[in-house]
């Protein structure tokens, strides 16, 4: 048996938090043994919602689940007038469309919207008369067939353009990987505070609003810790429960940034009443992306908004999580130390003799690695410590030189 939430709202701008946060008020709950194939909900609930629509002057009704084309059509007929019926996927796509600020994000959202619309063209048109076929005998093709063909052509063109974007982003990543700076990706539920954390650590000016999906494009900035070590910090698109599959597919180029990371930082809004469900939702998406092998660090953000911050901090310590308040900067130093420790676990121990004429290489080792001991010899500077694997490969000849001296 499943629970369906139906939200009635007068203005579309109020729908975001009401639909996507289950604890919201102004919604109706309906327990179903199985969805009604015609209207998803039963006839009694349809009548009840229709009464509420007229009483409250409702403009939009949102179902917190995906509806078929037939269910959407039947519900709109039943509710009558100009009432819009919207399912969860359509709402998320609408929000993404409003947040898309770059050409790449616009392409990704447009592709997802078209793929959502394609199967819903069926029986949703009143102009089903056939077009004249010119000199061709017969009635020609139905308007809906023309519309579908046009939509498929547009989808194909968008996929090609996005593949070009994906290849460009891949080339950029390859160039970035040639300089062995560890990449740390911020992941988490939407509105958990990832962009705020990036801004605090790097001084970046990434949009950080108290709203869902404020960031759709990955943003990467360099972070330097007090001891001189550096890493790249990437802000990624926020996740959500029941994230539509078409969105995951459309944002593949963006989400591939996550798969190239040295460390994933899972940012959680610990003040949210459904924080545990949000953690599960993020873990599910990460599982779908097949990134389980990448080390992870759990960060509990917005601890300042928790009912009992001290108890939250004690619980976080027991679970190995880092507590912080990104907006006020509390806990950032502890966060950087934790990132450094996690990155060290993913590094390779090295002992190498760096010639004195390779000063840039020695500087890189100090920036991206962890130098534990330094010794100046006749042949060069001997360092012992941990470095990322790509840098360890560059140091292979010099490591052999050290081995030969013992």
CATH topology of the largest domain: Rossmann fold
Cα radius of gyration in angstroms: 27 Å
What's the number of domains?
4
Reading the helices and strands in chain order gives EHEHEHEHHHEHEEHHEHEHEHEHEEHH
Give the low-pLDDT segments. Answer: 8-25, 123-140, 206-216, 400-406
Instruction: Summarize model confidence as the mean pLDDT.
Output: 77
Biggest sheet: strands, sense, closure? Answer: 6 strands, mixed
- Strand proportion, as a percent range, falls in 15-25%
Distance between the termini: 70 Å
- The CATH architecture classification of the largest domain is 3-Layer(aba) Sandwich
* Structural class estimated from helices and strands: alpha/beta
Helical amount among residues, as a percent range? 40-55%
Count all strands and give the number.
13
CATH superfamily of the largest domain: P-loop containing nucleotide triphosphate hydrolases
- Shape from CA axes? elongated
Q: CATH top level of the largest domain? A: Alpha Beta
Number of helices: 15
Strand order of the largest sheet: 6-7-5-8-9-10
Binding site for Mg(2+): 195, 215
Organism: Dioscorea cayennensis subsp. rotundata (White Guinea yam)
Protein name: GTPase HflX isoform X2
InterPro entries: G_HFLX_dom, GTP-bd, GTP-bd_M, GTPase_HflX, GTPase_HflX_N, GTPase_HflX_N_sf, P-loop_NTPase, Small_GTP-bd
């Amino acid at each position: 048996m499943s629970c369906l939430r139906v939200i009635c709202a007068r203005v579309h701008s109020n729908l975001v938090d009401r639909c996507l946060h289950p604890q919201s008020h102004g919604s109706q709950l309906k327990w179903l043994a199985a969805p009604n194939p015609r209207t998803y909900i039963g006839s009694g609930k349809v009548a009840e919602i229709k009464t509420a629509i007229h009483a409250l002057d409702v403009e939009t009704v949102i179902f917190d689940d995906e509806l078929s084309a037939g269910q959407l059509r039947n519900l709109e007929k039943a509710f009558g007038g100009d009432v819009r019926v919207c399912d969860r996927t359509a709402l998320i796509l609408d929000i993404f469309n409003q947040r898309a600020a770059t050409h790449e994000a616009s392409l990704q959202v447009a592709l997802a919207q078209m793929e959502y619309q394609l199967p819903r063209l069926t029986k949703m048109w009143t102009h089903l008369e056939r077009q004249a076929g010119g000199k061709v005998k017969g009635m020609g093709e139905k308007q809906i067939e023309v519309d579908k063909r046009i939509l498929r052509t547009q989808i194909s063109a968008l996929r090609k353009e996005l593949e070009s974007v994906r290849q460009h982003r891949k080339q950029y990543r390859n160039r970035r990987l040639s300089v062995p700076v560890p990449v740390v990706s911020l992941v988490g539920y939407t509105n958990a505070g990832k962009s705020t954390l990036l801004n605090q650590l790097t001084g970046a000016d990434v949009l950080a609003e108290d709203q869902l999906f404020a960031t759709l494009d990955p943003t990467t900035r360099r972070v330097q810790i007090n001891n001189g070590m550096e890493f790249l910090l990437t802000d990624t698109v926020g996740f959500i429960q029941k994230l539509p599959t078409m969105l995951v597919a459309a944002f593949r180029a963006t989400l591939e940034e996550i798969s190239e990371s040295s460390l994933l930082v899972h940012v959680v809004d610990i003040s949210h009443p459904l924080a545990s469900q949000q953690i599960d939702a993020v873990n599910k998406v990460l599982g779908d992306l097949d990134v389980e092998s990448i080390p992870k660090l759990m960060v509990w953000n917005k601890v300042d908004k928790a009912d009992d911050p001290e108890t939250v901090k004690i619980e976080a310590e027991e679970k190995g999580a880092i507590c912080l308040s990104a907006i006020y900067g509390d806990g950032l130093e502890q966060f950087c130390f934790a990132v450094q420790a996690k990155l060290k676990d993913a590094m390779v121990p090295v002992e190498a003799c760096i010639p004195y004429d390779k000063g840039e290489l020695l500087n890189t080792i100090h920036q991206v690695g962890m130098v534990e001991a330094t010794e100046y010899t006749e042949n060069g500077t001997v360092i012992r410590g941990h470095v990322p694997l790509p840098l360890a490969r560059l140091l292979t000849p010099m490591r052999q030189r050290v081995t030969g001296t013992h």
